[in-house]
Design brief:
7 helices; binds NADP nicotinamide-adenine-dinucleotide phosphate; Rossmann fold; alpha/beta; 40% helix; seven-stranded parallel β-sheet; 249 residues
Length: 249
């Protein structure tokens, strides 16, 4: 019996924040496996439209869907629009993210609320709406190795990603047996928008493998999880082993 996983051909996926960077690599990796992709975006309309063209060139369907995940009504509308275009959805990748500096000393109620909305409330709304389809599906949440490695310079972000970690475990139990819920926790993959590659090279010493990863490394972990038939509630750290060290600086 083949236990390596299921074929993804003909499946449908919704990926949030998919127009650029890791989301884009994940969308292309799924499309190359024959998955039809809903490319959610917020502000990157030209990139989302170009990605949809590229995905269609691979012989599968692609649809752009715009919306602000800070807003619950818009988050629900994103799913409705995605499902209206793609039919039912088989895969949800909660990838969209904001990454702003603050510490526990200066974090505001607003910064905590915004991070929680994008990284926890929106994934919850999308996940339970997916589950209400009443059919088998996979959810992958994008965490951060910082859930294991406290980063005092990104406190609101780290806090909200830890909520998403807990939510991954809760949803894995709550949505079983129909829906598998897993997570990928990247380490150094891409510099934050506006920062150069120096940002990453300065940090490579911190992880045991002494290098940074590529968006395709994250996409490969997502692919592995959505092809699995017997994994739920799992976190794959794709971080060169940084999570083992317990500190980032
Ligand atoms: N990059 C890394 O090295 C790294 C390291 C650790 C963890 N991660 C995690 O991996 C995932 C992907 O990382 P990334 O660096 O590729 O992400 P990113 O560039 O920081 O964000 C991805 C997309 O999220 C969307 N987004 C932000 N705020 C939104 C909102 N209010 N509503 C809807 N969409 C919104 C943006 O879409 P638009 O451009 O369309 O506005 C953005 O392009 C994230 O969850 C991140 O936390 C990344």
């Amino acid at each position: 019996m083949d236990t390596t996983g299921v074929s993804l051909t003909g499946r449908t996926a919704l990926i949030t924040g998919a127009a650029r960077r890791i989301g884009r690599a994940t969308a292309l990796a799924l499309a190359r496996q024959g998955v039809h992709v809903v490319v959610h975006y917020h502000q990157s309309a030209p990139e989302a439209l170009a990605l949809c063209e590229e995905i269609r060139g691979l012989g599968v369907s692609a649809w752009p869907v715009q919306g602000d995940l800070m807003d619950s009504a818009q988050t629900e509308a994103i799913f409705r629009t995605a499902a209206a275009q793609a039919g039912t959805l088989d895969i949800l990748v909660n990838n969209a993210s904001m990454f702003e500096k603050d510490t526990l000393w200066d974090a505001t109620e607003e910064s905590i609320r915004e991070n929680m909305r994008v990284h926890a409330v929106a994934p919850l709304i999308l996940s339970r709406t997916l589950a209400r389809q009443g059919r088998p599906a996979h959810i992958v949440n994008l965490l951060d190795t910082r859930v294991a490695v406290y980063d005092r310079e990104h406190a609101s972000y780290d806090l909200s990603k830890n909520v998403l970690l807990t939510l991954t475990h809760m949803l894995a139990l709550e949505l079983a047996p129909q829906v598998a819920v897993n997570a990928v926790a990247p380490g150094s993959i891409l510099p934050p928008p506006g920062m150069g590659i120096d940002y990453l090279t300065k940090l490579t010493y911190a992880n045991p493998l002494n290098r940074h990863g590529e968006p395709e490394d994250i996409a490969a972990a997502v692919l592995f999880l959505v092809r699995s038939r017997f994994i739920t509630g799992q976190v794959i750290y794709v971080d060169g082993g940084l999570h083992l060290k317990g500190h980032i600086y």
